[in-house]
Specification:
It comes from bioreactor metagenome. There is one protein chain. By secondary structure, the protein is an alpha+beta fold. It has two helices and seven strands. It has a single domain, classed as Structural Genomics Hypothetical 15.5 Kd Protein In mrcA-pckA Intergenic Region, Chain A. Helices cover 24% and strands 34% of the residues. A five-stranded mixed sheet has the order 1-7-6-3-4, with no helix packed on it. A two-stranded antiparallel ribbon has the order 2-5. Strand 6 and strand 7 form a beta hairpin.
């Protein structure tokens, strides 16, 4: 599991995917989310603006990213 540190109270899901290097562009992150390829805390998430907080686990393409 990869640990990703954020410096704010929360980060939006599409921004998080760019922050951790999964997506290089916002449009790429949006496609992953809308195509139901991203899970947050083990549930498929289709909300680009979902607030990701410390302790959440984001899963994409078999990789898990824990927010710290």
């Amino acid at each position: 599991m990869n640990e990703v540190k954020i410096n704010t109270e929360f980060i939006k899901l599409d921004s998080f995917l760019k922050w951790c290097g999964v997506a290089s562009l916002g449009s790429e992150a949006k496609m992953y989310i809308l195509d139901e390829m991203v899970k947050v805390n083990n549930e498929i998430c289709t909300q680009r603006g979902k607030k990701i907080k410390k302790g959440d686990i984001v899963e994409f393409d078999g990789e898990e990213y824990k927010v710290i």
